Automatic annotation (TrEMBL):
Protein name from the UniProt record: Citrulline utilization hydrolase CtlX
Gene Ontology molecular function terms on file: hydrolase activity
Entry keyword Hydrolase: yes
Organism: Polaromonas jejuensis
Source taxon at top rank: Bacteria
PANTHER family noted in UniProt: AMIDINOTRANSFERASE
Pfam families: DDAH_eukar
Listed InterPro entries: Amdntrnsf_FN0238
Swiss-Prot/TrEMBL keywords: Hydrolase
Length: 311
């Protein structure tokens, strides 16, 4: 297993700890992964989510990942704030993007203190803000909508309400990515709301639900593009995608690369799949069943920092 740091696997991340977590009714219409909490359970659900984020942060820190933890006290009514990867992303060379969000409640998640921290702690050259495109109903939800190959400069993107081709083209021009757009369907035939639910691109491998890409020719092109970039393609089933096996992120820890994913996701992988992953990254499962009620998992909880530290 390599201990060399990879541009694909950040060594620092931003996470948000919610104090009033609840699955967001506003996003349920196009997120088939969500579960609804009963009203009387609300306080217990919020407390459980708080504990899960706390434990996840501690586990990542124990692995040597630098975690910038921000609190969401719930004053702005931001039920999905635990998923900061959707409203901003960072890129080598000092570039930051702020994104346009599909659901009005999610637009309140954008925080100037997070951006100011990045500018203070890391070398930031420019911040490009796409949030004004919300007025034109044009949305692109960050590293939920796009899964980046930072090495080969490809932005894999599943077409959805949350990933508009016009904004994708604009982003790709600004940030020097090749956009690779495709249509998807889950086991029930519904479009998958975010690309990072069905695929994860790591340094030496990619986890991907090939069967979720509806056009077989396009699926073959995606596989070829991944293999050309040196990735071993590990195909996930629809059932594994439903268990969030695709919603993982490779990080650089103290002792080499790790793959952070949920315990549920890890349990869904076969022994052979785990062995293939662990040739280049150690599996680090995090227990986040309450957070997963909101339709996202570990990848959604982590905004990777691909910037150079100032110190």
């Amino acid at each position: 297993m390599s201990t060399i740091r990879s541009i694909q696997a950040p060594a620092a991340v931003v996470m948000i700890r919610p104090h009033q977590f609840t699955p967001n009714a506003e996003t349920a219409s196009d997120n088939a992964f969500q579960k609804v909490a009963a009203r009387e359970e609300a306080q217990a659900v919020a407390e459980a989510a708080y504990r899960e984020v706390t434990a996840a942060v501690e586990r990542l820190q124990a692995e040597g990942v630098r975690v910038h933890l921000f609190e969401d006290l719930g004053e702005r009514d931001t039920p999905d704030s635990v998923f900061p990867n959707n409203w901003f992303s960072t890129h080598p060379g000092g570039h930051v993007a702020i994104y346009s969000m599909y659901s009005p409640s999610r637009r309140r998640e954008r925080r100037s203190d997070v951006i100011e921290m990045l500018k203070t702690e890391y070398r930031v050259q420019d911040v490009i803000d796409y949030s004004g495109l919300e007025q034109d109903n044009l949305f692109l939800e960050g590293t939920g909508a796009m899964v980046f190959d930072h090495l080969a400069r490809v932005a894999y993107t599943a077409r959805s309400n949350r990933a508009d081709p016009v904004v994708l083209e604009r982003f790709s021009t600004h940030f020097n990515f090749e956009p690779m757009l495709f249509d998807t369907a889950d086991a029930a035939g519904l479009p998958i709301y975010h690309t990072n639910v069905l695929m994860c691109v790591a340094t030496e491998f990619a986890l991907i639900g090939m069967d979720a890409i509806t056009d077989p020719r396009r699926a073959a092109e995606v596989r070829t593009r991944l293999e050309e970039s040196g990735r071993e393609v590990i195909a996930l089933s629809h059932a594994q995608i439903a268990e969030f096996a695709g919603n993982a992120i490779e990080l650089s820890g103290r002792d080499g690369r790790i793959l952070a994913l949920s315990q549920r996701a890890c349990d869904s992988l076969t022994a052979e799949q785990k062995a293939r992953v662990e040739r280049s990254a150690r599996l680090v499962p995090l227990v986040v069943p309450t957070i997963e009620m909101a339709g996202g998992s570990v990848r959604c909880m982590i905004a990777g920092i691909h910037l150079s530290p100032r110190h």
